[in-house]
Design a protein that fits this description.
mainly alpha; 259 residues; globular
Length: 259
Amino acid sequence: MIIQFIDSIGSYTLFICSILGRFSIFFWQAIIALCRTRLKLSKTITQMNRIGVESFNIIVLTGGFTGMVFALQSYIGFQRVGGEQFIGAVVALGMTRELGPVLTGLMVTGRAGSAITAEIGTMRITEQLDALKTLRLNIFQYLVVPRMVASTIVLPCLTAFSMIFGIIGGYIVCVHVLELSPEDYRKSIEGYLEFEDIRGGLIKSAVFGLILSWVGTYKGYYTSGGARGVGIATTQSVVLSSIMILIANYFLTKLLERL
């Protein structure tokens, strides 16, 4: 009984190590392709449009209503201690440091990360990737690197809009719903929001963009099992990317705090 238990632990450990190794090697191959081959600029721009421009409306809605809810909840708390004049600073800091980057990463993961996995996974099961290899095309240069570069570049841009519309949403609630002073809202932001807060949020979003494209392309590249396998890979991609974004958010916060 004890030997079987130890054997199961060893087998599971080896399985996890093999997955992590293949995951890391995939990323390393993408880095090598980026450094040693010419970047497909047209494909990168196309992916920036798919990942960024087509996600703009969702990000604006998410950021705006998040800022509105955050302002409303902050008002309920600050009203009890007489600190309504600090709502603007709290909304701005929350949107720039945490909510803007994280929610943007999660929303783009659900919309674009899943599409990346489904597209490459479909190419895998229909043997299109094998056809590209027979044509002497570098799959990483042709499919993986443009998506990773595009998402890393475009996520900070989307996050910036999420921050802006979140602060605007908070302003609308504070001024037009709660009937607070617009000067207090503006001055509290000017007094407490610093450039380092915005820069930290943009750095986080760039890392989140790399994570979602890394996971999306990896899951699509190793898809198997036909149409059902594509669905499973897509689901796993969204779940794994979301978990990695939340974990990376903690460590990035600690790192940026020390820096």
